[in-house]
Amino acid sequence: MKELITIHQANMLMLALLIAAPVIGVMWGSFTRQVPRGALIGLAVGGGNYALWTVYNALTDRLGLDTVKNLAINLVLFIVVGAAAGFAAAKFGQPKADADPQISQDNSDV
Question: What are phi and psi of 6, to 5 degrees?
Answer without folding.
Answer: -85, 165
